[in-house]
Write a structure and sequence with these properties.
Oligomer: single chain
Distance between the termini: 51 Å
Number of helices: 17
Shape: elongated
Structural class: alpha/beta
Helix content: 25-40%
Number of strands: 17
Largest sheet: 11 strands, mixed
Radius of gyration: 25 Å
Length: 466
């Protein structure tokens, strides 16, 4: 299908929810400006929705419940997909691309899972595939990675890419609230869905990490390749411990290209971690997103802004739509996805990181030596260790459970809390250490574990970040 020389660019919109309705509004309000930028008017050919009666503000003649028929219409030049989910979006977009219709999508889950198939279909037909809005809402991020830094070598992409979890952790930090109360507040203010699983368990961030790693390191990475942990287990005590270390806790998506003995690998992971307050990401609060990109020549770059919201995400969608429409008018093509590197994904166990471990222990002689011995046995070096008296451990649910299980009743037992921060070591060794600690007779329980990330460190020549 070739739209070159046409007097108008026709757009099929799939989905008209929070973002889609804003796209419709902006297309109407900015029609003259968009036409000037594209070189021809941009008009809606139709809008596919499930329940037309819910869209009273949209001209009825534009609405349809048959997205397949809309996508296959011969007058459609660009398909904008905002319906979400894997199916039927996958088949609809593949059909559009195979028939030369350019695609604009904000569907992070689909792109993380089926990005390779979509890119191949676009490459074979010469159509464009744009998806700026899929990762960081209004923040221009993918285009700078794909185009502005095309002549550089990116080493690390790390950031806060989920506004819901950042709001929750920021609220815990500022108010001292626990996770449950902060989640409830996020829901009341509209930052958390009724079912927050995709956000708080890290699935949303993992999809975005897969997209970022694929673009930055020219290697196809799927959401299943991304190691993932959520924030449900982060406690107010963890936030306080981070503060005492001069850190804050953020849910991070971290993508790195590391050199290994076999030639190199990509690390992609999502988890809550302590980061120094001196790092720019530490000051990102509320529902905002920010991504830190480190490249050989350009150095560190930070992208910050609204990562979600109807108007904000629609802004990124319209930017992609203008690019796709302009290419249709003048006969150009957008950038192609490149996956020439074919790097393996590094197993999480091989990733070098640091642990902050909070242990409930018996307050008696020899405990510290026993704990230190376990770290030594697993070749994990201790950076700092701090022992706290009975009050902190007495409040611990782990400690209270241990007292009940051991039948102490009102007997005077002297507990304590040990807080250990390690030097960098392979994650597998750190995990094995924690498992061994839990088995010590002198350790009542492992109260919490958080990773500590120094995002300013260079990526090493061998074995991962150092």
């Amino acid at each position: 299908m070739n739209a070159v020389g046409k007097d108008v660019v026709k757009v099929a919109l799939l989905g008209c929810g929070v973002v889609g309705s804003q796209v419709v509004r902006l297309l109407d309000e900015q029609a003259d400006e968009l036409a000037a930028r594209v070189g021809a008017p941009v008009e809606l050919a139709g809008i596919a929705v499930r329940r037309p009666q819910r869209h009273a503000g949209v001209p009825a003649e534009l609405l349809t419940t048959d997205p397949a028929a809309l996508v296959s219409r011969p007058d459609v030049d660009v398909v904008v997909e905002l319906m979400g989910g894997i199916e039927p979006a996958r088949d609809l977009l593949l059909d559009a691309l195979k028939n030369g219709r350019s695609v604009v999508s904000a569907n992070k889950a689909l792109l993380a899972e089926e990005g390779e198939a979509l890119a191949a279909a676009a490459r074979e037909s010469g159509a464009d595939l744009y998806y700026e809005a899929s990762v960081a809402g209004a923040i221009p991020l993918l285009r700078p990675i794909q185009q502005s830094l095309a002549g550089d070598r990116i080493r690390r992409v790390a950031g806060i890419v989920n506004g819901t979890t950042n709001f929750i952790l920021s609220a815990m930090e500022s108010t001292g609230a626990g996770y449950a109360d902060a989640l409830e507040e996020a829901g009341r203010l509209g930052y958390a869905e009724a079912d927050p699983t995709a956000d708080v368990d890290g699935y949303d961030a993992a999809s975005k990490a897969a997209i970022l790693a694929s673009l930055a390191f020219h290697t196809r990475v799927t959401a299943a390749d991304v190691y993932r942990e959520g924030i449900r287990d982060v406690t107010a005590a963890d936030i306080a411990s981070a503060r005492a270390l001069g850190c804050t806790v953020k849910l991070l998506a971290i993508c790195e290209q590391v050199e290994t003995a076999d030639g190199g690998a990509v690390s992609a992971r999502v988890y809550p971690a302590m980061i120094p307050r001196s790092h720019p990401l530490a000051s990102v609060s509320g529902a905002f997103n920010a991504v830190f990109v480190e490249a050989d020549a350009a150095g560190p770059l930070m992208f910050y802004g609204q990562g979600a919201g109807g108007p904000q995400t629609a802004s990124a969608v319209l930017g992609d739509l203008v690019a796709a429409a302009r290419n249709k008018v003048i006969g150009g093509r957008g950038p192609r996805d490149t996956a020439y590197a074919h790097l393996p994904v590094q197993p999480m166990g091989d990733v070098r990181t640091r642990y902050h471990v909070n242990l409930d222990v018996h307050d008696r002689a020899g405990v510290l030596a026993a704990v230190a011995g376990v770290f030594s046995d697993h070749d994990v070096s201790i950076a700092t260790v701090k022992q706290e008296g009975g009050d902190a451990a007495e409040r611990s649910s782990t400690y209270r459970s241990a007292r009940r299980d051991e039948g102490h009743g009102g007997e005077d037992v002297s507990p304590a809390t040990l807080v250990v921060v390690t030097h960098e070591a392979p994650d597998a060794a750190l995990r094995a250490t924690v498992e061994a600690l839990a088995g010590l007779e002198s350790v009542r329980g492992v109260a919490s574990i958080l990773r500590v990330e120094d995002l300013g460190r260079p990526v090493s020549a061998l074995g991962g970040p150092q």
